[in-house]
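Narrative of activities, Objective 1.

The group set out to show that a structural description can be obtained from nothing but a protein's sequence at a throughput compatible with the screening campaign. Below is one input-output pair from the validation batch, recorded exactly as produced.
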Amino acid sequence: MLFSEILGHEHIKNHLIKSASQGRIPHAQLFIGPEGTGTLAMAIAYAQYIVCQNNGNDNFGANEACNLKFNHLSHPDLHFVYPTVSTEDVKSKPKSLDFIQEWRQFISENVYGSLFDWYKMLGVQNKQGEIRVDDAQEILKALSLKSLEGSYKIMIIWMADKMNIAASNKLLKLLEEPTDKTVFILISENEEDIIQTIRSRCQVLHFNGLPEDVISQALVSRENIDEKLAYKIAHQAQGNFNKALHILKEDNDELPFEKWFVDWVRAAFRAKGNAAAIQDLISWSEQIAGLGREAQKKFLNYCIDMFRQALLLNYQAEKLVYMEPSIENFKLEKFAPFVTGNNIIEIFKELSDASYHIERNGNAKIILTDLSIKLTRLIHKN
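Output recorded for this entry:
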């Protein structure tokens, strides 16, 4: 993985290269950044720079064999841990090593991929993965061995906020008493979800969303598309290169969030003064409840974005509006007047609470039925 292949974040690249060149390598680092910003790509490139003892401003050097192993993610001093779930092939006690082939394929296809994309590759969108204590045991085992190249051993923990309590406690002991020449790189989208005792032992680097011009240039050069289309997609992606690729490939048809949102809006307006329309809201809730929990959370986040866009439009901030609904006879401009300062905070709270309860394995049908009724009342609130 070359630093030059990673989009944006020049200041972070320079910081990592400079500190590694000077031998100032922290034993634990925490990369925090939203989806599609390149945290995983940066971690792999940084690991390669350290282990292969490269010099200069990129991963070139005399140790070509080492760099080649990293390009295939097969270097014995590079270890990965990531959320896993039980599948048809691995029915109990799944751990990262059980899915190493799928993991290498996932990175080679799109290193900017999201947790949802990873579950999709495993074919388990209806389950929520986690990093278990068995993975922590594997970390102990892997790091107890000597380095093959006589250099550093790197442990990259992707989505570290998905560690359960047992795994977190075991990792904490390793961070407190690290073995010699061992580097931990934790990656997360949610800093607050990682326990404080682990965060306090890591050097934290924050990644911001990618600028629109960086995303549009990458789409033009890598996907060979027209500049105007690239800029439009980059604007809609909101700093998320993974989202930009999904928009370009139009592979959101499997989860038609826009249609489901519009279906709810129409059912909500029919429900005003019409008690019989409550059945439409219940049917809508049952449909969404039939999805996997990750898809449900993703849909609720989409709803939050739609309400935010409507509010911006209502307050005449058209330049900040990037969503363009394609459903027939649904115009964001007509929906926007119903989203105001009087109800937006309560709407956000209800959607956030629903996502919170779904993540904690609440009954999705009850949660979503309650949500649909509450939101129906709120959009009719003056």
